[in-house]
Write a structure and sequence with these properties.
binds UDP-4-deoxy-4-formamido-beta-L-arabinopyranose; EC 5.1.3.2; alpha/beta; UDP_G4E; carbohydrate metabolism; 17 strands; 10 helices; UDP-galactose 4-epimerase, domain 1; Rossmann fold
């Protein structure tokens, strides 16, 4: 049983690869190595491949064939909201085109199991802020739109040729399951704060006048190792003939405010954090939390890590990356 993981050398992908290997699966990585590193997945065959390139379908089909792949976990994608607003056509080519490649290649060789990485971004700014999978899909930026289109594409492939598919909608992913698998990208709250602390600068809070208990935005942070486990559960679930759902929020059901996150980071790192509060960031919903009940009920998944684990492991991995000379990846726009 060989599983192809696209984007497997990235931050989340490398955790998924380890979780699959721990579950006894043979894993092959497909990655363009644009924002990732081969060193994270040394134990597995790696094919360097840009899924949005014109010859990608044939090349990926050859990889699937060569390894007699039985399933695909498709994570490879661009994921920066701001960049997607600036370069929407490129985002559609990369994310929608890349998925098109995966589906064509899978169909060509008869590989009919697929786990697709979707995002909380498909919900846009939902009323009330607490969502379930039945909350309408209404993305407000090109990144979220590419994920919504992706969900339609995999569902259409299911109807057209019997693909067994599931979309996992990631909420705010953070932490590290292993010291060497930290998030090298300084793009999200956790790493942005750690980066500021290292530079001895004040972390920035985007607005403290939201209608939330402490005025800062509330999010649902999920440990990357728990997210990786959800992929294994979702892949195994594809073998069931009586599946009722093909979308799952991967979240904990627990909201954490920016101020609470800063307090947790202060406690773990031993820094007194005096943040600089600036204006709200455009497009930030006050609250974005999922009940995540479906994942618990249908797949028996439970998050094993709380906020302290998320922050503690992110910090350890951050320090370990610095010690091994890994350079942070910063926003392109
Ligand atoms: C978290 C909170 C900020 C930085 C993004 C994507 C989403 C999904 C998850 C992948 C917000 C606040 C942040 C800072 C701050 N990605 N913040 N100061 O925007 O919730 O979600 O990642 O699918 O699609 O949009 O994550 O980490 O940027 O922000 O105050 O320096 O922290 O306003 O409330 P976000 P984030």
């Amino acid at each position: 049983m060989t599983i192809i993981v696209t984007g497997g050398a990235g931050y989340i992908g490398a955790h998924v690869v380890r979780a699959l290997a721990d579950a006894g699966k043979d894993v092959v990585v497909v990655d363009d190595l644009s924002t990732s590193s081969a060193g994270r997945v040394r134990a597995h065959p790696l094919h360097r491949l840009d899924l949005a390139a014109s010859d990608a379908t044939n090349r990926l089909a050859a990889v699937l064939d060569q390894h007699r792949a039985t399933g695909i976990i498709h994570l490879a994608a661009k994921k920066q909201v701001g960049e997607s607003v600036a370069r929407p056509e490129w985002y559609f080519r990369q994310n929608v085109g890349g998925l098109g490649t995966v589906l064509e290649a899978a169909r060509a060789v008869g590989c009919d199991r697929l786990v697709f990485s979707s995002s909380a971004a498909v919900y846009g700014e939902p009323v009330g802020g607490v969502v379930t999978e039945d909350t309408p899909v209404a993305p407000i930026n090109p990144y979220g739109q590419t994920k919504a289109v992706g969900e339609w594409m995999v569902r259409d492939a299911a109807r057209a040729w019997g693909l067994r598919q599931v979309s996992l909608r990631y909420f705010n992913v953070a932490g590290a399951g292993h010291h060497d698998l930290g998030d090298p990208a300084v793009l999200n709250l956790m790493t942005l704060v750690l980066d500021r602390l290292e530079a001895r600068e004040a972390p920035v809070v985007f607005g403290d006048d939201y209608p939330t208990p402490d005025g800062t935005c509330v999010r649902d942070y999920v440990h990357v190792a728990d997210l990786a486990d959800a992929h294994v559960a979702a892949l195994n679930d594809l073998e069931r003939d009586d599946r009722r759902y093909d979308t799952f929020d991967v979240a904990t059901g627990r909201g954490v405010s920016v101020a609470e996150m800063l307090a947790a980071i202060a406690a773990v790192t031993g820094n007194a954090i005096e943040p600089r509060v600036v204006a709200r960031r455009l497009g930030d919903p006050a609250v974005l939390v999922a009940t995540a009940q479906r994942l618990r009920t249908e797949l028996g998944w439970e998050p094993r890590h709380g906020l302290d684990d998320i922050v503690g492991s992110a910090w350890q991995a951050w320090v370990s990356q610095r010690e091994s000379g890994v350079e942070p990846i910063r926003a392109a726009v």
